[in-house]
Design brief:
The protein is α+β, with helices and mostly antiparallel strands. It is 36% helix and 20% strand. Helix 3 runs parallel beside helix 9 (343-359) and helix 9 packs antiparallel against helix 12 (403-430).
């Protein structure tokens, strides 16, 4: 899996040794949806050497029809064999970079945007490490939200079919070389979480793409449906993707300072300040769907208030205290993103915000160690605590005016993402929803 230093020769050898007949070539559209096509073994050498041409005009956020020729160039470091496929029908896959016909990187490729942002960090000597916690629901099918259990946080429900899916997902990921830290039942009924061992951001973004695919395919294999929809059920917690992150210089954690009260370096404090300052602007990238804002409401563990703390899980940014004073464990946790985002763009926007804070020496306010949900509006104003956007259209309007986000994403993805999300909002606001028919039809 990603991170392996596999050459084209290595990949060809593994294909032969495992008698793999079909190779899937994957990439993400601007919303982070997995796209791709399959090539037969006989075409592999050509694909590895020259890439595979395809029509980009039908991919969301890619090229116009008059400039639609794209090339998918497989990244051999992402080669993986899909262990849940029968051995007699073995299938492998690789994630791809998208190129223009002249072999230059395509500006609409979100993987390229993350690479560019990581290069900025690399120029300063930093490696950006990420460890996300992805939550998801498992339902009876994709036509309803019929739950499989009444379990809660860390419950052990031995008869729960969802537990079997979770166990098989963990085994599958490990077979694919993706390291799982631990897994458990989440707060809501039929909700689960599988946490991934931290690694560099590019590797992790690729892993998130594969993780979501594996979860869905294993659930389908069991006759069930897994969803990363941020808020599928009214009245219970939604699904988040808390993102633990740190900057390393070689083997040293740049966020760690043994002499600081919070064990945070000046770089870490400026980085957190950058995340807080630009949080509203990057919310559209980290929470990009209409449904994302049904989760971002007070009272359901999703942070909406822009502040930071240590043990405080009501803040937007938290500094975990599991191992205080331990250099390797020092990190920050950004708690607003949801698991339905585009991981390449989300990780790029977080890093860019943090780097901006470091470059311009943003000042970090004092940590807030109170339950922010119980603050009055007067107390929030006094403390200078602001809120994240409360709806998709509010997030769009904030992002549209952000030069910072435009610079991070590039003109192509920035303009196409804004346009795509405006279309989504227009389609949503024209619909008549169940709440309206239940509350207004009987009385109006």
């Amino acid at each position: 899996m990603a991170g392996k230093k596999l050459s084209k020769t290595d990949v060809s050898r593994l294909i032969r040794e495992n008698d793999i007949k079909f190779i899937r070539l994957w990439f993400a559209d601007i919303t982070g949806q997995m796209k791709g096509f399959t090539v037969v073994r006989e075409e592999l050498d050509h694909a590895l050497e020259d890439g595979m041409g395809f029509d980009g005009s039908s991919i969301k956020g890619f090229a116009r029809i008059d400039e639609s020729d794209m090339i998918a160039m497989p990244d051999t470091s992402t080669f993986t064999i899909l262990p849940y496929r029968p051995k007699e029908e073995a299938v492998a896959g690789m994630l791809c970079d998208i190129l223009n016909p002249d072999r230059t990187p395509y500006q609409g490729d979100s993987r390229y945007i993350l690479k560019k942002t990581l290069d900025r960090a690399k120029e300063k000597g930093f490696i950006f490490n990420i460890g996300p916690e992805l939550e998801f629901f498992i339902f009876k099918d994709d036509k309803s939200t019929q739950i499989l259990d009444e379990g809660g946080y860390f419950d052990v429900t031995t008869l729960d079919a969802g537990n079997e899916v979770r166990r098989e997902v963990m085994l599958t990921l490990e077979h694919m070389g993706i390291h799982v830290e631990y897994a458990h039942h989440e707060v809501a009924p039929s909700q689960h979480e599988i946490d991934l061992r931290f690694t560099d951001a590019m590797n992790m973004a690729d892993i998130v793409m594969l993780y979501r695919m594996v979860v869905k395919e294993i659930a389908q294999k069991h006759g069930l449906y897994a969803t990363f929809m941020p808020k599928p059920i009214y009245g219970v917690n939604g699904s988040g993707m808390h993102v633990h992150q740190s900057l390393f210089k070689g083997s040293s954690n740049a966020f760690f300072d043994i002499n600081d009260e919070h064990h945070l370096s000046s770089e870490a404090k400026s980085y957190i300040a950058g995340i807080l300052k630009h949080a509203k602007e990057i919310t559209l990238v980290c929470n990009q769907w209409v449904n994302s804002y049904k989760r971002l409401v007070p009272g359901y563990e999703a942070p909406v208030y822009i502040c930071w703390g240590r043990k405080n899980r009501s803040t937007l940014v938290r500094v975990p205290m599991y191992k205080p004073g331990k250099e390797k464990a020092t990190r920050i946790e950004f708690r607003s993103p949801d698991p339905a985002c585009n991981p390449y763009l989300a990780f790029a926007s977080m890093l860019a915000a943090g780097l901006k804070g470091m470059e311009e020496n943003y000042v970090l306010p004092e940590p807030l160690e109170r339950d922010v949900y119980n603050l009055t509006s007067e107390e929030m104003q006094e403390l200078g605590v602001e809120c994240l956007p409360g709806s998709l259209i509010e997030a769009i309007e904030i992002s549209e005016g952000s030069e910072f986000l435009k610079e991070t994403l590039g003109e192509h993805i920035f303009s196409n993402l804004i346009m795509s999300k405006k279309i989504e909002w227009d389609e949503y606001r024209k619909r008549v929803h169940e709440y309206e028919t239940e509350n207004y039809l009987p009385v109006l």
